[in-house]
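Record 1 of the preview.
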Amino acid sequence: MSNQKKRSWAEPYKIKMVEPVRITTFEERKKALEEAGYNTFLLRSRDVYIDLLTDSGTSAMSDRQWAGMMMGDESYAGSTNFYHLEEAIREYYGYKYVVPTHQGRAAEHIISQLLIKKGDFIPGNMYFTTTKLHQELAGGTFVDVIIDEAHDPENEHPFKANIDLDKLESLIKEKGPDKIPYVSFATTVNMAGGQPISLENLRAVRELTQKYGIKIIHDMTRVAENAYLIQKREPGYENTPVKEIVREICSLTDGATMSAKKDALVNIGGFLAVNDEELFDRARNMVVVYEGLHTYGGMAGRDMEALAIGISESVDHDHIRARVGQVEYLGKKIIDMGIPVVKPIGSHGVFLDAKKILPHLSQELLPAQSLAAAIYLDSGVRSMERGVVSSGRNPETGDHNYPSLELVRLTIPRRVYTQAHMDVVAESVEAVYENRTEISGLKFVYEPEYLRFFQSRFAVV
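->
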């Protein structure tokens, strides 16, 4: 057994098609970065060598998924593929009713409009950008009730996405249960560094919410990855299949929004799933207005088929072990280089601690945005900011929000890159780190009203 532990592992798939990538020069990258306003979201993909901007919609589909695409039933109403998708969601997640959407934020919009009234408060385990915005647009206020450990990059709590029960109950008592339409509970919290929840915590939250008659709406974008980390870290689940852990997580919630572009291995798609028939009926009525008919909701039949297959593949042990293992591989290499990152390494990306890497830059000078730009300039590796820019502004004062976490996310698409690519990424981060004192800050020169990190432009200070 000791020899087994020392052996290398490899990706559990073979490559049968390749997509060439362009390796650029320093001068080409400098020009591209200036044209993009130092915002990695505005770079053209042709100018990117290794793209770690996001794991959303960037995964490689399997041969089974591509075969399923050929079986797309593009009937306007009653597509066969919708019923395959409905069957997969009921089998793997256990929710009774399904409303397909073109991607996850459409599901967030629908559930927010249906459940939130002006003046409501929505507690959650750290905000996510689109989720929080939809809650605010519906008249609600997001309240972060995640445990304090989540805001400390050095803390190695195994379940940093857990909800602080005292914070949650204090909010319920202060505002009243009628002012809290639901608890927004995400599995694998993105903004905390890809950190998981524990089943023990979710059960306790379920017990507390039932006491006050409050729903739990599950952001299940990366639920299979969270389930895998439960299997690895939570006592009593070492021998429980990921598929069963996923079902148990979902059984403790009342409904879910899903961006299927992550865990479920498709390039587009999502859904809203609920157990309440009356709520389902209202959501089904609403999807017709904003998305499309209730049996396609913004997706083509072929995409629904690929999604149904992707759901089953997402809980396969070999796949999920290799997926999270590749993230851990990159994270360990960067930690071994002495570079500050969020610990423990999460499931979908490595999060560089820009505050510690660039201590000479105050948050007003946007250190995470500056670090992401520097990494691209060095190697053509595209990452993204998760700090001041993503956090937005206080709607009452107009001032920047200054989160305790100022991070650069190296997000790894599923089944796309090899370990050699991860080595290149780590070496680029190391080169930038060695020359970190030369990195200047950035300032806004253009800022849109909503979700500014997507389209803002910057200039070197």
